[in-house]
Amino acid sequence: MLTLTFALPRLLPGDPVELLHSSDLMRELTAAEEQQLYRSMGLEGSWLDQFGGYMAAVLQGNLGYSIQHGAAVSQLLAHALPWTGLLILGAMPIALLIGVTAGIEAGRCPHGPFDLIATGLMTCLSSVPPFAWAILLVLVFGVMWPILPPAGAQSVMPPHGAVQRAIDIAWHAVLPMLSLALHEVARFYFLCRGEAVGLSSRPFIVNARARGLGGLRERIHYYGRNLLPAVLARLSDSVTGLVGTVVFVEIVFSYPGLGGLIYDAIGDRDYVLLQGAVLWLAAFVLLMNWLLDAVVSVLARRG
Q1: Which of 102, 98, 96 is nearest to 117 (CA)?
Q2: Burial of residue 101, with CB atoms counted within 10 A of its CB: 0-12 exposed, 13-18 middle, 19 or more buried
Q3: Which end of the chain is more exposed for a tag (fewer CB within 10 A), N or C?
């Protein structure tokens, strides 16, 4: 991961100093000043020398300094990561609630009216990428019927009270969360529907129905508990997909998360910021997968 994040940005045409020269932010530099700028950015010497310096800095916990943003990379990432985490952790419960509930309902009565309608709808949902959902939701609920904020994480002049500010942040996060959740809903639906179809023919389900059991008890205790291991296993892959998708969704909604930083870093050839952002995203994915594996391990010991 460290090697790829170091090498891939450097394969892009140009470098940070050349882009600064082409902007209005820099005066004409002497050769000595330009050499000093390359040295301060860690771009002096061969790729091997630069990689050695980068690895030494990372091992010391130093992710570098972004000249374009005028701040330390760790400071920029610490400000952006909570916004990205908010979208991912907010989208997951939405996808789980809708996808698992609909999947169980469809799998209980396969080929019934609900199953046919829901499966057709989920097939359409799964064929649309999340960034397309983001654009469509902005168009519908931000432009045509402006009932939800189409961009940003909070109002231009946010309220002063903590509760009012939390409500304002949640209101701005509705559309980005829906954009992320809609695609994952279909994945959990098809997973749970397939598992529920198999469970419906199992003797303990048949006997429970023969005794007149139904309603929430059947769906939660008989289907939900047996689907939990499969859903948790699927969550690991879902987290990885959401992390890759949230970058594009944040760009569409001008959300102040890691996606906007990565987009700006690619355009500015800000190597240190791009390397740090990818490293933090990889660490976030590993942490979430570790937590999910720990939960699965605990559930497995409990049987």
Answers
A1: 102
A2: middle
A3: C
